[in-house]
Write a structure and sequence with these properties.
A hairpin with a 2-residue loop joins strand 4 and strand 5. The protein is globular and about 40 Å long. The chain is built from two helices and seven strands, in the order ααβββββββ. The two termini are about 35 Å apart. It has two domains: about 30 residues, no CATH class; about 90 residues, Immunoglobulin-like. By secondary structure, it is mainly beta.
């Protein structure tokens, strides 16, 4: 049973019964929206990472994609209320004939926390 169903069932029992649970309607949120867009076979910047505790050093990150290649390049850009902060730019290029949604997996370490993210890239 999905976790949300369990939470709703527990809440219904706690707050007074089945009538309340029957009135509750769950509306699906729909498909997730892409975080970035890219054209097939064309390198595109799809994201960047920075650490406000270390503005003069881009974070070290590791990246991979399911249907393309990803490279990380140091870039300068606005972040942390400043104009020029060193960042890790994330550049994606799909396989030559791939179209659809791809995922870019990002792992790394900032000064005070771990970076673990997935970017959804819509490739047209």
């Amino acid at each position: 049973m999905p976790r949300t169903t369990v939470l709703i069932a527990v809440s219904a029992a706690f707050f007074g019964g089945a009538a309340w649970a029957e009135d509750l309607k769950i509306v699906p949120a729909g498909p997730p929206k892409p975080d970035a867009f890219a054209r097939t076979g064309v390198e595109s910047k799809v994201g960047n990472a920075w650490d406000c505790n270390m503005k003069n050093k881009a974070p070290v990150i590791w990246v991979r994609a399911d249907h393309g290649t990803v490279v990380v390049r140091e870039i300068l850009g606005p972040a942390c209320a400043e104009q020029n902060v060193r960042q890790a730019g994330i550049f994606y290029k799909s396989e030559p004939s791939f179209k659809g949604e791809d995922k870019v997996y990002i792992n790394g370490f900032l000064e005070t926390e771990r970076l673990n993210a997935i970017l959804r890239v819509q490739v047209n």
